[in-house]
Write a structure and sequence with these properties.
With about 575 residues, chain A is α+β, with helices and mostly antiparallel strands. Chain A is built from 17 helices and 23 strands. At the A-B interface, strand 1, helix 3, helix 4, strand 6 and strand 7 of A face strand 1, helix 3, helix 4, strand 6 and strand 7 of B.
């Protein structure tokens, strides 16, 4: 060992001890007769002092150690004359008696501090230095703790951690697969798994009963801001269970994680029907840290001569409490906000509920004070409130109003990062109609079970069939989702029909699973959590990237490695492929 | 929940309770008035009894349930009249009052028993059924336990579980990479990692100090009997440590696993120099459950007119204790054994140490009783022992005699599966000369540090330089290996020179790592364990395949999925590749 202690553990009770530390130079201060070096490691920072009067050679040596040099320092723990209460080691310092430079360092390309001067690209190129910054290091350590606590909980519940293969078979359904040419099977390809879905179902057929895995998944999608081509899932499945058992088990997991990581005892999770989530919040992942539900005004407002309202499918609004004092400029700003292409609405109608009980709206020309009073009653609006109304196609208007609601929640400070509201969104539709391809897609995936009571609608009104599917939503973020699966070959086959698979396609792609259903498949279901996302939630961050040790950029590149990269012609030849 | 209890937990103390079980029909016995169904799940087997007199309809229904049907049985726990002490649930049975067939099963293609009638190929095609067999299920559960215990130990020692990427960059050094064409970076490829080696070193540069990961690795090699294209490693690295710290830490891990999994307190591991392992056992992974070390006879036996011995580099033997009574036929058998192409020797010389103190050898024509007595003394052979001698090229003879030693150990019952002898083999050579390419290869990998005391030989006699590298060997199986790494850019660069890299190649492939070494890389080192192999060791099996839930066959195929498989032309086009 190059050290007796870490740079985070020495306290007053160690005063007088001879110790050795090893770490990186965070900074050096040269005060004439004294030189102070802040030595940093994973555990903290300890101040080391070199005295010119006592050992000038040693002090000179210390002065030469630049930022990020790796030093081994031997010395005595002494009491600091000016204590630093902001540092855990702030009561002591090390009076150095020996110094070994374990490795030198060039001047790093950016400062190794939370408030670094390095831009994103530079930090990604030197990711190994970026990882030295405390906030990034804390994220990676948080990820370790959340992973460990997940395993502790699931192990204690009798779950088995079972590894499933990474070199599997490509299935055109769903997102695009990454493929891997096989040298030993010329002209053939493996695919990397988008999830272990079929394997975990097979494990249920095998009788393993409670399975989990914290595992990497791969999707070759065009990357959005916060997507990674490889990401990690907490993947779980249980047999002989009903939906309620799964909800309870995994609510228990998340409650455990909040207890361990945040010291928070969460109350029982709220539950909401998918239909209600869409109707009241315009989203299948509503942020319920605040209310501000939608009210529909269509019946109240049509037929009064306002052609904008008369010509649309839906007129819906929210009540922004206490915002009646918004200025013209603020209201214009909100109107511009909803007109942005990302939101795509044509305009915004407002009603101010004045303190004197009167109303002022942008549509005063069409609606009387009594009309507006009726609106206000629908919202339960009080004097001082501001009603915001959008109109248009139902689906689009809900979505836009959902965004506006979040924006108003943000402006009103109703989305506190330290508050956690957990919600199960349930009873998703089984299928969604795709206008482009003119066929149904599975809303969750093709293995999701319809609700038994809706089975008779599967032929007559497939769009109305609800699924035993559920998402876990925390603070408006979907952290996990799952379903009760189909375990009957006939029903699974019917699902593939509905989704437009020919019998041959279904057999070629999922024959092994349908085969397995013929040999005693138990009822089963499960859930998968986005581990990167869950960690970013615990870390109070919006981006998942800083919770991944070596993330890729938005072009799917690892700029540190400079990967992907061309490969040798000989290698391609062995794989029997060539570039086009 | 479809059950109140599992099929493994009911005991006498549950008698009288109303319970519900769910599981698979292991077997049905129809004894006229009574029908017995053995219901199986992951936890065990419970006998269910149906009485024709009491409920003939229910009993008829039970009789129709074939093997591997999934049943839900409700009933009362009653005392068995004829108890079965071989089953944990053997004191009780369930008197059924209700029965639900949760799913039917076709007759499985092989019997779901340890002693199954299914051949390897059939069982791999129906792997989900093979996994129902108790011995396979036990292996998968063992793997879960060993993994969990590994994490418990490493977490308790302050190690951080940090995930490293799977889509990385191809490096021609070492084994062949699997590559993944990038759609978003046309003409470029990711590679799947053969190990997280460079990433774990970067994590040390980042200051994470103690890292581990139980992670998948990939090698596109021609598969030998017990190799898999994807396999799992317990991958570990530590900073600010010397070799001794690593040996102690991971000896601790393995001791912990033996305690938890086997209830065995292992003594301190033995240690052996690589040179001694080769000299005494002809192997870098000697099985030290038994002795039978080599003795060299070259000085004793040359120059006596026996041309076979006079013309060779090495004459080495072992003493098979108590085997002097081997018959002519047995000795001929051993001679044939060493002549097989896998061993490749030209013949075998033996000396029987007779009970009366005389000697009988296959070379009596050339050696007197006194000569043979001198041989026997060199081996410490006693009357009743059998000396077996091989002669030839040193390297080849050692290897062959090593195999013969293992064979004799096997025949003498000295390799008991319940006995565990753990060994560190240390001080491996840094480099090995490759006759084909006429250059040095890294014996461990290019990042392994030479021993400091041998640094001066690196230019003058590179083949003699020893490395700070070590393997952990248990019962003759290499379960792990590692090294202290280079952390100095200059030395790493020198290593790449030695290994025949041009400066440009080294920079293109490992520039990021050498760059990292310029910004304060700490001394570090680590180890990686073959997790599949470790599990098979704990499971007392020779093959790793049955400790992997979904293994591939010797052609790298998953016969259950039928993968790899051709992919759509459209998919290849998107990836900008085509078949040759």
């Amino acid at each position: 060992m190059y050290r007796t202690h870490t740079c985070g553990e020495l306290r007053s009770e160690h005063i007088g001890q001879a110790i050795t530390l090893a770490g990186w130079v965070q900074k050096t201060r040269d005060l004439g007769g004294m030189t102070f070096v802040d030595l940093r490691d994973r555990y903290g920072i300890t101040q080391v002092v070199f005295n010119m009067d006592e050992d000038s050679a040693l002090c000179e040596q210390a002065r030469k150690a630049g930022r990020e040099f790796v030093l081994q320092v031997t010395g005595e723990v002494i009491e600091r004359s000016s204590k630093n209460p902001n540092m855990p080691t702030g009561d002591i310092e090390i009076k150095a008696t020996d110094l070994v430079v374990l490795n030198a360092s060039k001047t790093p390309p950016f400062t190794i501090e939370n408030d670094t001067d390095g831009g994103e690209d530079l930090r990604m190129t030197y990711r190994y230095l970026d990882l030295r910054r405390q906030e990034v290091r804390d994220n990676i350590m948080l990820r370790h703790r959340v992973g460990a606590a997940t395993r502790t909980y699931l192990n204690s519940q009798g779950f088995l951690d079972i590894e499933t293969p990474f070199l599997i078979k490509s299935t055109p359904e769903g997102a695009r697969d990454f493929v891997v040419p096989s040298r030993m099977n010329e002209g053939q390809f493996y695919a990397l798994p988008q999830s272990p879905q079929t394997f975990k179902q097979l494990l249920m057929v095998s009788g393993f009963d409670k399975y989990y895995q914290i595992t990497r998944c791969f999707r070759d999608e065009d990357l959005r801001a916060d997507r990674q081509p490889e990401f990690t899932q907490i993947d779980c499945e249980m047999a002989f269970v009903e939906q309620e058992d799964i909800l309870n088990t995994f609510e228990g997991l998340i409650r455990h994680l909040f207890q361990v990581e945040k010291g928070i005892d969460l109350p029982k999770f709220e539950r909401m029907q998918f239909d209600d989530a869409m109707r009241l919040y315009g989203s299948d992942k509503p942020d319920i840290r605040f209310g501000m539900p939608f009210s529909e005004l269509t019946d109240l407002v049509q037929g009064k001569g306002f052609v904008v309202f008369d010509s649309v499918e839906a007129i819906i609004g929210i009540n922004a409490k206490g915002c009646a004092d918004y200025t013209r400029k603020q209201l214009d700003g909100l109107t511009d906000w909803v007109k942005r292409p990302q939101i795509g609405m044509k305009g915004l109608v407002y009603v101010k509920c004045n303190a004197d009980g009167s109303f002022k709206s942008s549509v005063d020309k069409f609606y009387s004070q009594d009309d507006l009073k009726a609106w206000a009653e629908r919202f339960g609006a009080q004097p001082g409130d501001l009603i915001l109304v959008l109109a248009g196609d139902l689906h689009k208007t809900r979505k836009a109003l959902g965004e506006l609601r979040l924006e108003m929640g943000e402006r009103l400070g109703l989305r506190d990062k330290g508050t956690y509201k957990c919600l199960w969104v349930m009873d998703f539709p089984l299928l969604e109609w795709d206008e482009d391809t003119e066929r149904y897609h599975a809303m969750h995936h093709p293995f999701t079970s319809p609700k038994p009571e809706d089975l008779d609608k599967i032929d007559t009104a497939p769009g109305e069939v609800k699924a035993n599917a559920y998402d876990m939503v925390i603070n408006g973020v979907e952290v996990g989702g799952g379903s009760i699966r189909i375990h009957d070959r006939g029903l699974q086959s019917r699902m593939f029909d509905l989704l437009g698979f020919s019998k041959e396609e279904a057999q070629a792609q999922f024959g092994f699973l349908m085969g397995a259903f013929e040999y005693g498949a138990p009822p089963h279901g499960g859930i998968a959590f986005g581990f990167d996302r869950l960690c970013s939630l615990f870390g109070g961050a919006d981006s998942i990237r800083d919770f991944i040790a070596f993330p890729k950029n938005n072009s799917g590149r690892d700029v540190m490695l400079d990967a992907p990269a061309p490969v040798d012609e000989a290698q391609l030849k062995e794989l029997a492929i060539q570039l086009r």
